[in-house]
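lol ok so funny story. i was supposed to be doing the assay writeup but got distracted and ended up predicting the structure for this chain instead. priorities right. anyway since i did it might as well share w the group, maybe its usefull for someone
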Amino acid sequence: MAAHADRRERIEARLGEGLRPTHIEVIDESHLHAGHAGARSGAGHFRALLVSDRFEGLSRVKRQQLVYGLLAEEMGPEIHAFSMRTLTPAEWQAEG
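and the output, tada:
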């Protein structure tokens, strides 16, 4: 389990450096996918909530491309699946 925590922390750190988020949550959901073909390689399944000024003026697709670009080295060997919600601080505040 420590290896999974380290991987989550590395992902969080990479996103933190690139996005300077006001809020970040990275959740390792790998245990929910045990036995899944993509999980056999050891790569994990993650879900993230990211709130950053960097998303201002970007479409949903552009926001996701930005995040995937930051995680390019981790995609494949470390990350099999990565789902995300990307919000600006104003959008996050509007959600309450």
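The radius of gyration is 14 Å. The chain has one domain: 2-95.
back to the writeup now i swear
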